[in-house]
Amino acid sequence: MTPIGLTKRQAVALGLITHRLNSTGISPSYDELAAHLGLRSKSGVCRVVDQLVERGHLVRLERRARGLGLPSSEAAIVAQMLERAAASAAQDGFSVRLSRPVALLLLKRCEQTGRLPGDVIATAVARHLGGGNA
User: Fold this and answer.
1) Is the pLDDT of residue 1 over 60?
2) What per-residue confidence (pLDDT) applies to 112?
3) Is the dihedral of CA 125, 126, 132, 134 positive or negative?
4) Could you tell me what percent of the chain has a pLDDT over 90?
5) Which of 65, 59, 95 is closest to 80 using CA atoms?
6) What is the pLDDT of residues 25-50, one digit of tens each?
7) What are the residue ranges of helices labelled H in 1-134?
8) How many CA atoms lie within 13 Å of 93's alpha carbon, on the beta-carbon side?
9) What angle separates helix 42-54 from helix 30-37, to the nearest 10 degrees?
10) Residues 63-96 as b or e (16 or more Cβ within 10 Å = b)
């Protein structure tokens, strides 16, 4: 039985992507999806994925290899937070690359304080370097 509004192929693709994201945290490659779906080309996979994104079953995670996520998943939220942190830091002329555990801590602090990621990072760096609040 397929979820309402999805074709059998879309449901199978979504099932594989969901399973892989939940078990490994990484979405399958388009080649893996093509093999699983019995498709010969990546363009067919691209159409299926595009339709799933359009319907809100998946989100694209920008600037990431295998950049698919579930809309409410922690991975998608963390990826969006990382992008916001990087953009905020870039406005101030910095480049930021955070590990997943640090990104989760950043997300938690932003939710607690209602502050932007760049502000939280600036405050943490200032405190670490002995400069007090930023």
Assistant:
1) no
2) 81
3) negative
4) 28
5) 59
6) 889 999 999 999 999 999 999 999 99
7) 8-24, 30-37, 42-54, 74-91, 100-113, 117-128
8) 0
9) 100
10) eeeeebbbeebebbbbbebbebbbebbeeeeeeb
